[in-house]
C-alpha cells in the first residue's frame, strides 16, 4: 500500500533520531573526557616551568654554580685576609709606638746638655751617648735629712758595691737614691751628698730644688731624668721608708712586660681634703667637683711603676703637665686622658709584721711592705732590719729569679 512511516515512540520522536542523538552524545562525551584528562596539574606546571627555567639558565650561564662556589671561597679568603690585616695593623701600631718612644727618648737625651736638663751633670763629665737597655729603674726618693734611712736600706734590701754593679749587668736592674740640690747649690748639704755618692755610687742627682712641697715636681723630673739616662721597660718610684723584695718586684713587673702604657701600684680613690691645716690638703680641691668628692683612681705614693712610654710621655710634656699638692694625685692626673691600663697590684702594699710575715711563710712574699698609718714603715730606721728579717724573700732570691 505505499511507503510505511517511521516508527514513533510514545512522545512522538522517531527511533532513528534517538539513535543519532545517542551516537552524537557518545562522541561528545569522548571528546570532553579527552580534554579533561589532557589538562595538566597546576603544581606540575610550576615544577616543569621551574625545571625548564633552570635548564635554560644553565644553558645560558653554565658557570653560575662555579661562580657561587668561587664567591664562597672568596668570602673565606676575605675573612682570612681581614684577620691577617688586623694582625699586621696591630704589629705596625706597636712598631710606631716603639719608634715614637725612641724618638722622644732621643730628644730627651739630646736635651741632656741644654738648659733645663733634668739631670745634674758634673763639670768635665761626658754626656751619655747611648742609653743602656735595662729591665727596670728604681728611684728611691730621699732627702738631705734622710741619711740614716738610706743606711738602713743599704744594710738590708739594697745591694752594694760590686753586687749593685752585678745587678745592673746581669739582671738589668738600676737602683738609685734620687735627690736634687739645696737652695744654695754647692753648700754644706750638697757637699755631704757628693761625699756619700763618692763612697756608694748610688745616687741620681736631679736639677731640682729639694722641698717637701715640691714632691710633684721632683717626681716629674725624676722620670724625665731616668728616661734620659736608661732605656728601661719600667720606671719605679719608691719612698725611702718602704721595704722592698727585689725578686718579687721583678716577677710582678715581668707579668706585664708585653703590655703598653701600664700604670702599676696600689690603686685608691681617697677624699679630696679641702680644709687647710690637715695633712694632704689640696688647695685646688674645687677642681674635683663639689665638697666631699673623691679623687680619680691613682696609685698610692709609697711605690708605683710605669712603663717606658708613660715615662717618656712625662719627659716630653713635663713643662705643661699640671702638678697638684700631692705627687701621687699629680701622677694619676697626667694619665687620665690617656689610654692607660691601671693595674691594682696588692703585693706592692703589704703591711709590716705580722701581715707580710704570714705571706712570706705561706711562700708568697710581698713585693713591698709599709704601714698605712705612717705612709711608710713607722720608725723605719729602727725597724727596717726587723722587717727585712721577718718579711724578706732572702738575700739570694734576686739572683735566682728569672725575668
From TrEMBL:
DUF4094 domain span: 14-109
Known EC number: 2.4.1.-
Compartmental location: Golgi apparatus membrane
Keyword terms: Glycosyltransferase, Golgi apparatus, Manganese, Membrane, Signal-anchor, Transferase, Transmembrane, Transmembrane helix
Gene Ontology, cellular component aspect: Golgi membrane
Pathway connected to this protein: Protein modification; protein glycosylation
GO molecular function: galactosyltransferase activity
Transmembrane feature ranges: 15-37
Membrane topology of the entry: Single-pass type II membrane protein
InterPro entries: DUF4094, Glyco_trans_31
Cofactor entry: Mn(2+)
Enzyme class per UniProt: transferase
Keyword Oxidoreductase: no
Family according to the record: Belongs to the glycosyltransferase 31 family.
Stated name of the protein: Hexosyltransferase
UniProt lineage: Eukaryota, Viridiplantae, Streptophyta, Embryophyta, Tracheophyta
Underlying gene: LOC110758870
Amino acid at each position: 500500500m505505499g511507503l510505511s512511516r517511521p516508527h514513533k515512540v510514545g512522545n512522538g520522536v522517531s527511533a532513528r533520531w534517538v539513535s543519532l542523538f545517542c551516537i552524537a552524545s557518545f562522541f561528545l562525551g569522548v571528546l570532553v573526557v579527552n580534554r579533561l584528562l589532557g589538562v595538566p596539574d597546576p603544581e606540575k606546571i610550576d615544577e616543569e616551568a621551574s625545571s625548564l627555567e633552570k635548564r635554560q639558565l644553565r644553558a645560558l650561564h653554565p658557570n653560575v654554580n662555579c661562580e657561587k662556589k668561587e664567591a664562597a671561597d672568596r668570602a673565606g679568603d676575605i675573612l682570612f685576609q681581614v684577620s691577617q690585616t688586623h694582625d699586621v695593623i696591630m704589629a705596625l701600631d706597636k712598631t710606631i709606638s716603639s719608634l715614637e718612644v725612641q724618638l722622644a727618648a732621643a730628644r730627651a737625651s739630646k736635651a741632656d746638655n741644654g738648659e733645663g736638663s733634668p739631670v745634674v751633670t758634673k763639670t768635665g763629665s761626658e754626656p751619655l751617648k747611648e742609653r743602656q737597655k735595662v729591665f727596670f729603674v728604681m728611684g728611691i726618693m730621699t732627702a738631705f735629712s734622710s741619711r740614716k734611712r738610706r743606711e738602713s736600706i743599704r744594710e738590708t734590701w739594697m745591694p752594694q758595691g760590686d753586687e749593685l754593679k752585678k745587678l745592673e749587668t746581669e739582671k738589668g736592674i738600676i737602683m738609685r737614691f734620687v735627690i736634687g740640690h739645696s737652695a744654695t747649690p754647692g753648700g754644706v748639704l750638697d757637699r755631704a751628698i757628693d761625699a756619700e755618692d763618692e763612697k756608694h755610687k748610688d745616687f741620681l742627682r736631679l736639677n731640682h730644688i729639694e722641698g717637701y712641697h715640691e714632691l710633684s715636681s721632683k717626681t716629674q723630673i725624676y722620670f724625665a731624668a731616668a728616661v734620659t739616662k736608661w732605656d728601661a721597660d719600667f720606671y719605679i718610684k719608691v719612698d725611702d721608708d718602704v721595704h722592698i723584695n727585689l725578686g718579687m718586684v721583678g716577677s710582678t713587673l715581668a707579668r706585664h712586660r708585653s703590655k703598653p702604657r701600664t700604670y702599676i701600684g696600689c690603686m685608691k680613690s681617697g677624699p679630696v681634703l679641702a680644709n687647710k691645716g690637715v695633712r694632704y690638703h689640696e688647695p685646688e680641691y674645687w677642681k674635683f667637683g663639689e665638697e666631699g668628692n673623691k679623687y680619680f683612681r691613682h696609685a698610692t705614693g709609697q711605690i708605683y711603676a710605669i712603663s717606658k712610654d708613660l715615662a717618656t710621655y712625662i719627659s716630653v710634656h713635663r713643662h705643661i703637665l699640671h702638678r697638684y699638692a700631692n705627687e701621687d694625685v699629680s701622677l694619676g692626673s697626667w694619665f687620665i686622658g690617656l689610654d692607660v691600663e691601671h693595674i691594682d697590684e696588692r703585693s706592692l702594699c703589704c703591711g709590716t709584721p705580722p701581715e707580710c710575715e704570714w705571706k712570706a711563710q705561706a711562700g708568697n712574699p710581698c713585693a713591698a711592705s709599709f704601714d698605712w698609718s705612717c705612709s711608710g714603715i713607722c720608725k723605719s730606721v729602727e725597724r727596717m732590719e726587723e722587717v727585712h728579717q721577718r718579711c724578706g724573700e732572702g738575700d739570694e732570691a734576686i739572683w735566682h729569679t728569672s725575668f
